[in-house]
Amino acid sequence: MFRLSLLGAMLTMVSVAAALGLVYYSMIETELGRVEQANINEIAELQNLYDEAGLARVKAAMDAGLVPPTLSSEAPEYKQLFDAGGIAAVERAVTVRGASYEALYFLQTRRVVRGNILGQGDLITSENIDQSEDGGKGYSKINFLYSDPNSDSEDFIDRRARGIVGNLRLGEDRVAAIIVGRDVEAISRTGDRIRSTLPPALALAAILGLISSWFVSRSFAARVEAFNRLATDVRAGNLDRRAPRNHSEDEMDLLAEHLNDMLDHIDRLMQAMRYAGDSIAHDLRSPLTRLRTRLESAAVELGDTPEADVLFSAAEDASELLTTFDGVLRIARLEAGERRELLQPTDPKPLLDDLAELYEPACEDAGLAFTADISKGTDILADRGLLSQAVSNLVENAIKYTPKGGRIHLELRKTRNGRVLISVTDNGPGIPAEDRDRVKERFVRLDKSRTLPGSGLGLALVDAVADLHRAEFTMEDGFNDRDTLGLKANIILPRRRPGVKPDEKK
After folding, report:
1. Both 485 and 444 in a single domain?
2. Which of 50, 135, 174, 236 has its CA 20 to 30 A from that of 253?
3. Are strands 487-493 and 420-426 parallel, antiparallel or unpaired?
4. Could you give the number of structural domains in the chain?
5. Known EC number(s) (predicted)?
6. Which of 99, 192, 88 shows the shortest CA–CA distance to 147?
7. Please, what sign has the CA dihedral across residues 55, 58, 62, 63?
8. Is pLDDT of 340 > 70?
9. 140-162, pLDDT tens digit by residue?
10. CB neighbours of 267 closer than 8 A, spacing ≥ 6?
11. Other C-beta atoms within 10 Å of 428: how many?
């Protein structure tokens, strides 16, 4: 949820930065580009005037830019300035009052220097004027500050301007150096305000983005968590659970609708499968049992004859078929989540003590050493019958595959995190790591065990019992004796929480 909130805030910040960048470009950079193009056009126009009428016409054009030609008739205030202080007073007034976008000029010949940016410090130097981009034939862009030395207002001190440095030429000879500029103080101030607004705007966007993303992601996470709980409950066998809907017809609501339809279909299939399984169990178990009984009875009547041995073998095959059939049905019912409601608080120590007492003589008969380490105080929620069946399968597998002279160890203890570990360890051939998940499937038998009796359902049943108890069934290397891997099969049961009922959902 935090990652979604952070991503939303970042996207909001990027959007705000992009919007302010677009505003800055359209309001500032575009306008500055227009100013630069106006300066370039004006220098070109002054060059054309020089080519047509000489330097005097250029000076007149500059004077026209400095002092409006309608000075005497339409601007009496400028006439009064002219009468009092001459053209210099009028030039200062025009420069100050018409600063924004008004032309700023500087012209220098061998004998004359004129313009309205005279005496502006380092700007008016031969080095600045002579600089160009293509060996004296092009233009150079300059940014400079200018002021009105006779003004008392701070608004007319160190105003920013952008200009073009060029040359008036007669053929290949440079006749005069010229600067044409425009006041860009207003544009620059607007750009400053936009740039200064960017950090607080991004900070505000980040805060609002985090808040809004947190609310959105929290709502989304709550709905996803509802789906997770649904999946957990369905996996546990509670097929009556359904995804909550708000009937908003949005994507999540449609997903919930489709999930519910799918679960309805699965529930119908499971009910049909259970009905078919019960029918098969009812219809076939009795005939198979009768078949086995008749074969055994016929074998007894024949006495000690070869025909009797054949009938006994057939009866054993029928018994094995019944056992396999019962195992498949039991696994199917466990995977469907049946009997979970029968889990009760259980102390596994007496159960494992009985199993140790039961299998110790069997191990001695098989030439195996049997040991047990069964701890106290390990209460769990369990079905005693199923847990006993699972541990019995592990011990019988160990007896079956461990060669004579080997050893088997049964253990019950608590782990560091409070869970309960039941393990059966041997020093038999073991199971390679790459096959340990595969052997949990039904009817899977490794090549080296094909010659031994069995149906490949023992470990599948253990895995189903572990899943019913919400436990882990794992396998690892056991007693490593020379050329044998050994096998340690673990059933790791969750710790029992006081006050939690057996059928209470987690």
Report:
1. yes
2. 236
3. antiparallel
4. 3
5. 2.7.13.3
6. 99
7. positive
8. no
9. 888 888 776 556 666 667 788 88
10. 239, 240
11. 24
The span from the CA of 458 to the CA of 389, in Å, is 9
- In the chain, the N- to C-terminal Cα span, in Å, equals 22
**Per-residue tokens: 216:** 């959105």
What is the CATH classification number for the domain harbouring 295? 1.10.287
How many whole angstroms separate alpha carbon 216 and alpha carbon 208? 12
Q: pLDDT class for 460, splitting at 50, 70, 90? A: confident
Cβ-contact 470, 420 below 8 angstroms: no
Helix, coil or strand: residue 502: coil
Tens digits of residue pLDDT in 112-123: 677 777 655 444
- What does residue 407 show for φ and ψ, rounded to 5 degrees? -140, 150
For the chain, what is the largest distance between any 2 Cα atoms, rounded to a whole number of angstroms? 153
Burial 52-90 (b: 16+ CB within 10 A, else e): eeebeebbebbeebbbeeebeeebeebeebbeeeeeebb
Q: For residues 65 and 98, what is the distance between their CA atoms, to the nearest angstrom?
A: 11
> Cβ(433)–Cβ(393) under 8 Å?
no
Are residues 352 and 485 part of one domain? yes
Query: In sequence order, what are the residues at sequence separation of 6 or more whose Cβ sits closer than 8 angstroms to the Cβ of residue 383?
Result: 339, 342, 343, 344, 468, 469
Residue pair 244/256 in contact (Cβ under 8 Å)? The answer is yes
Average pLDDT of the chain to the nearest whole number: 77
Reported pTM: 0.47
Rounded distance between C-alpha atoms, residue 339 and residue 411, angstroms? 26
Strands (E), 46-101: none
Residue 144 backbone dihedrals phi, psi, to 5 degrees: -150, 165
Strands, E assignment, 66-199: 103-108, 113-115, 140-146, 159-170, 173-183
* CA angle (316, 319, 325) in 5-degree steps: 145
Length of the chain: 506
Q: Within this chain, do residues 362 and 452 fall inside the same structural domain, yes or no?
A: yes
Please tell me whether residues 286 and 395 are part of one structural domain: no
Q: Domain range spanning residue 373?
A: 341-493
Strands 487-493, 472-476: pairing kind: antiparallel
Q: What is the dihedral of CA 496, 498, 499, 504, to 10 degrees?
A: -20
476: part of which helix (H) or strand (E)? Answer: strand 472-476
Whether residue 218 lies inside any domain: the answer is: no
Q: At what angle do helices 55-66 and 30-53 cross, to 10 degrees?
A: 140
User: Interior CA angle at 175 toward 171 and 180, to 5°?
Assistant: 110
